[in-house]
Task: inverse folding
């Protein structure tokens, strides 16, 4: 800042002689203008503004370096009269040639025929606010999708023709039941909820019920038994299936009155197929080589295919991931481990559109060996700015610290090795430490991968 200008102004108004130093100390950015808004002097303590031509701004109007929506704020601030005006702070967005738009929070004070703008840069706050808005928007989308799935579950559960009960594994207490269950049990839904499963059966069936629940809880495999209901005085067949809901284990109990097992089994199978066909995630069923046998509407939409018949017989590798790489990794893991969870890949449509997807895979052995794919669109999460991984930040800082102390050629070699190591570690994580699949993903031979693992001391990774 031009200290002579402010020093003269301070002498004229009886202010302290070190007034210019005080203004510089309390502000990131400060402007001194006349009452019409013409810039007489300025200062900034912001490194990103060091390249701006300061002299070119002297004599310019304050309105010429701010965005249009701030014109009225500038006019109001130019009317500042005395120290009382500093209590009102206003946020101004600057637009100066050579740098990006940036926000500043200003207080103003009138000093004779001049106005001093005392500003604090708030780019960091604005960035956090922007990230918060994006995160909230993504959260709202996820919540809306969750509500939609919950509604679909409630509709399917309550309209099912099969009598269904949901109970807690540890307590065996019934947490939910559908309309069909109230009819089979001949009890009100409110009376059923909270009871233990064995309390619905007569004394002769209690041991059988307890044995069935304990077997399912211990093995995780479905089980079935026959018993007699105490209130309805009817014989039923019970099928028990265990599943995880959040952090708790639940058991679904299907009650089938004698003679209705086959009919109800066909009904629930039909409803499950209908549900899978209509859910928003893409679902595809292929043979062991990746040829498509069935897919739902969500996949047809992502793959830009009009009819399911056009997709049948096509190899999924045409759409999913890099040709000959991702599908080989997925299928080999499915054959070896039976399933693959949350594999990030890219789904390319018939007309070139690309969708980032998270793919989960399960191998099916009965009645015919097949592979099931569930693909979820995760492209919207890219809109939320992501933080650089801590290791990447540390690597970049280390390289910056070496500038000036070692030749550029050595810096490039070091950075290449750091990036190579990070890529190999990422490939090992994605493939569950399967080195053959990692080598294929990276486009390396297995021998080359092992050489690099030795060089970076990665051969003794946990889980090897």
Result:
């Amino acid at each position: 800042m031009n200290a002579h200008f402010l020093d003269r102004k301070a002498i004229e108004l009886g202010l302290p002689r070190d007034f210019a130093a005080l203004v510089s100390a309390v502000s990131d950015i400060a402007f001194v203008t006349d009452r019409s808004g013409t810039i007489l002097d300025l200062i900034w303590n912001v490194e990103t503004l060091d390249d701006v031509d300061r002299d070119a701004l002297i004599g310019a109007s304050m309105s010429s370096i701010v965005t249009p929506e701030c014109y009225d704020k500038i006019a109001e601030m130019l009317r500042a009269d005395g120290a009382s005006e500093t209590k009102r702070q206003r946020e101004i967005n600057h637009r100066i040639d050579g740098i990006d738009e940036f926000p500043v929070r200003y207080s103003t004070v009138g000093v004779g025929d001049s106005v001093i703008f005392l500003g604090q840069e708030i780019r960091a706050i604005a960035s956090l606010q922007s990230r918060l808005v994006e995160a909230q928007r993504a959260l709202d989308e996820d919540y809306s999708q969750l509500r939609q799935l919950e509604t679909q579950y409630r509709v399917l559960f309550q309209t099912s023709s099969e009598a269904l009960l949901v109970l807690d594994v540890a307590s065996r207490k019934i947490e939910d039941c559908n309309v069909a269950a109230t009819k089979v049990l001949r009890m009100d839904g409110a009376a059923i909820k909270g009871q233990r499963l064995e309390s619905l059966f007569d004394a002769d069936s209690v041991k059988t019920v307890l044995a069935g629940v304990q077997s399912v809880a211990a093995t995780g495999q479905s089980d079935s038994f026959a018993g007699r209901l105490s209130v309805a005085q009817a014989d039923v067949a019970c099928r028990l299936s265990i599943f995880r809901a959040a952090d708790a284990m639940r058991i679904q109990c299907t009650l089938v009155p004698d003679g209705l097992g086959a009919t109800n089994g066909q009904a629930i199978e039909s409803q499950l197929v209908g549900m899978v066909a209509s859910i928003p995630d893409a679902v595809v069923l292929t043979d062991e080589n990746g040829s498509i046998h069935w897919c739902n509407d969500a996949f047809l939409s992502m793959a830009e295919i009009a009819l399911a018949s056009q997709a049948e017989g096509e190899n999924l590798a045409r759409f999913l991931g890099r040709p000959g790489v991702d599908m080989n990794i997925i299928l080999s893991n499915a054959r070896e481990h039976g399933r693959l969870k949350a594999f990030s890949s890219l789904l390319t449509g018939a007309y070139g559109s690309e969708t980032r997807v998270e793919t989960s895979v399960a191998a099916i052995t009965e009645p015919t060996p097949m592979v099931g794919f569930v693909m979820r669109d995760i492209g919207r999460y890219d809109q939320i700015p992501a933080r650089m991984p801590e290791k990447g930040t540390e690597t970049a800082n280390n390289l910056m610290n070496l500038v000036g102390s070692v030749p550029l050629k050595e810096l490039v070699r070091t950075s290449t090795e750091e990036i190579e190591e990070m890529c190999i570690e990422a490939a090992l994580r994605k493939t569950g430490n399967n080195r053959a699949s990692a080598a294929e993903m990276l486009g390396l031979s297995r021998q080359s991968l092992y050489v690099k693992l030795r060089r970076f001391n990665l051969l003794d990774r946990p889980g090897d």
User: Anything to note?
Assistant: Residues 384-389 have pLDDT under 50 and may be disordered. The radius of gyration is 34 Å. The longest helix spans residues 123-159.
